[in-house]
């Protein structure tokens, strides 16, 4: 329920905001790797919790 109404995300962002900002994610390099040996029945990754990169 707490995830459904967005209050958990808001709490998470409030608690970790300074750490996330300090990490300067926009200055990091993102590597996207393909894994051809991954089984076809592997569950999709929930990307809704991935942080947006700062420019």
In quaternary terms, these chains amount to: single chain
Number of strands: 0
User: What value does the Rg take, in angstroms?
Assistant: 15 Å
- Low-confidence parts, pLDDT < 50 over ≥5 residues? none
Helix content: 25-40%
What do the pLDDT scores average to?
Answer: 86
Contiguous helical run count: 1
User: What overall form do the CA principal axes indicate?
Assistant: flat
**Strand/helix succession:** H
Largest sheet: none
Distance between the termini: 33 Å
Strand content: under 5%
Structural class: mainly alpha
Give the structure's gist in a few sentences.
This protein has 55 residues and is mostly helical. The chain is built from one helix and no strands.
Overall description:
The chain is an all-alpha fold and 55 residues long. 29% of the residues lie in helices and 0% in strands. It contains one helix and no strands. It has one helix spanning 7-22. The protein is flat and about 40 Å long. The model has no long low-confidence stretch (mean pLDDT 86).
Topology, element by element:
Blueprint: H1 7-22
Features:
single chain; 55 residues; mainly alpha; 1 helix; flat
């Amino acid at each position: 329920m707490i995830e459904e109404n967005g209050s958990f995300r808001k709490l998470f962002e409030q608690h970790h905001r300074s750490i996330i900002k300090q990490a300067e994610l926009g200055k990091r390099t993102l590597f996207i790797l393909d894994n051809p040996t991954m089984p076809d029945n592997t569950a999709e990754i929930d990307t809704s919790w991935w942080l947006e990169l700062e420019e």
